[in-house]
Design brief:
Layout (H helix, E strand, L loop, with lengths): L13 H5 L4 H37 L2 H25 L5 H20 L4 H19 L2 H9 L4 H30 L5 H21 L4 H5 L17 H28 L4 H29 L1 H20 L3 H27 L4 H19 L2 H12 L3 H40 L5 H12 L4
Helix pairs in contact: 2-3, 2-4, 2-5, 2-6, 2-7, 2-8, 2-10, 3-5, 3-14, 3-15, 4-5, 4-8, 6-7, 6-13, 6-14, 7-11, 7-13, 10-11, 10-12, 10-13, 10-14, 10-15, 10-16, 11-12, 11-13, 12-13, 12-16
Length: 444
């Protein structure tokens, strides 16, 4: 295993990396993928696609539309903080089931919303549920397959988000073909029905790793467990910059194209292309990060992400398509690599607590993005300042990722040096190794 990939993480067994996954594991991964689709794509990312129709129907102001986007982000932030705390006490599979139930309820409210107030309630409830699903999902997926394929598993379940975004565009076009060009509530009705089905299947079939269920109850995990990941400050910085840059661009990408003269059906297709790209982005970045290192793939993701807003501002077909593809790849691939960094060092409840802390910072950083972008659009009649700022912030994320790789290499060198000193004192090896395992906070 490369030093850059996972400082201090044990090297995977070559034999285990070639084993076929058991059918139960494959079913669980597929259902966690669908849970991510319901909680994130349906619960949070359908709104930007329907934003213009909702705005024309009941809001009448991009600033108010941006406020609703902020409501969703605030709910996600609140949910992330709550789930980070609950992750120290509740198993990941249980949290995912609760989150799906809450997400389904939020979608049901959105399907019947008649104004700003009910829209805000639905988005808030759905945002809470999305946090309860997504915070524990990557760690549960990685624990089901082992460290050799952890990045791949995280990317696979994360691809459910892209799958949902991909589905929303054609679904919206199909609904409007029968219900009218401004229809948006029937989209949420269909999504709520799908969410209910996924919730039932996950409740019946998804379990945690067998070893964790049969072993003794794990010790309580400290909320500061993120500090056990080498370079954790750079990791926090990278995810914060990702959240800020992503929110300034993503929530108004479709609206910006429509203001530039693109038709609603064309922009829905662009959104679907973005979603399709993100399906492959998570899996590709996860697998490549297993081989070449997490920080390197994070740098690549941030650079691609920085180019997307600038390409979109041209409003020309080829650059816009490249922006959608590139942003889709990076918006799923970069968080996959970030989650894999944590999974290299922490598992089970420890992963949930650490990834929850990361996601809380991400949520806080993106909280004001839609509101700021909406105000700019109303006052300046342009998305240029917000989109340029999104590119600059993404380049800052690339710098943090580069520094994370350097910190990982230093951490590995330090651990190798420490192992050499322990080898000179065999009598102390057992106790020191036990202490190191405890400090890592890994639950077996």
């Amino acid at each position: 295993m490369s030093a850059e990939r996972s400082s201090g993480a044990p090297a995977p067994s070559p034999d285990r990396s070639r084993e076929r996954l058991a059918p139960r594991v494959l079913v669980s991964l597929g259902l966690i993928l669908l849970a991510s689709m319901v909680a994130q794509s349906f619960g949070r990312f359908t709104y930007p696609v329907l934003l213009k129709a909702i705005n024309d129907d009941v809001l009448g102001s991009l600033a108010r539309a941006g406020s609703l986007g902020t409501v969703s982000l605030a709910a996600y932030l609140t949910g992330t903080g709550l789930v980070s705390w609950l992750s120290t006490r509740i198993e990941p599979a249980t949290l995912i089931k609760v989150g799906l139930t809450v997400s389904t309820a939020g979608l049901a409210v959105l399907a019947t919303a008649s104004g700003f107030g009910t829209l805000a309630i639905g988005l808030f409830v759905a945002g809470l549920g999305s946090a309860a699903v997504w915070v524990p999902a990557p760690g549960l997926a990685a624990s089901l397959v082992g460290p050799a394929r952890g990045g791949f598993a995280i990317g696979l379940v994360g691809s459910g988000i892209g799958l949902g975004i991909f589905v929303v565009g054609p679904l919206t076009n199909a609904v409007r073909a029968g219900a009218g060009v401004g229809a948006w509530r029937p989209v949420y009705v269909i999504e709520a029905a799908v969410a209910l089905t996924v919730t039932v299947l996950v409740a019946l079939l998804v379990r945690g790793p067998a070893a964790a269920r049969s072993g003794p109850a794990p010790a309580r995990v400290p909320t500061t467990v993120i500090r056990q990941v080498p370079g954790w400050t750079y990791l926090l910085g990278a995810f914060a910059l990702f959240g800020a840059g992503y929110s300034l661009f993503f929530y108004f990408f479709v609206t910006q194209l429509q203001d530039a003269g693109w038709s609603a059906s064309s922009t829905n297709n662009v959104a679907s292309l973005l979603g399709l790209s993100s399906v492959f982005g998570g899996v590709a970045f996860g697998r490549l990060s297993d081989r070449f290192g997490r920080p390197r793939l994070m740098v690549v993701g941030f650079v691609i992400m920085a180019s997307a807003p600038l390409l979109a501002l041209t409003a020309s077909p080829v650059p816009v398509l490249l922006a959608a593809i590139g942003f889709g790849l990076s918006v799923s691939g970069t968080p996959t690599a970030i989650g894999a960094v944590v999974a290299d060092h922490l598992q089970g409840r420890a992963f949930g607590a650490a990834f929850g802390s990361l996601t809380f910072v991400f949520g806080a950083a993106q909280l004001a993005g839609p509101q700021i972008a909406g105000i700019i659009a109303d006052r300046a009649d342009s998305f240029v300042p917000a989109f340029v700022a999104a590119s600059v912030l993404s380049l800052g994320g690339a710098c943090c990722s580069w520094r994370l790789g350097a910190a990982g290499r230093r951490g590995t060198a330090g651990e190798l040096a420490g192992a050499g000193r322990l080898a000179d004192r065999p009598g102390d090896l057992g106790g020191a190794a036990a202490t190191l395992r405890a400090d890592k906070g890994v639950e077996q």
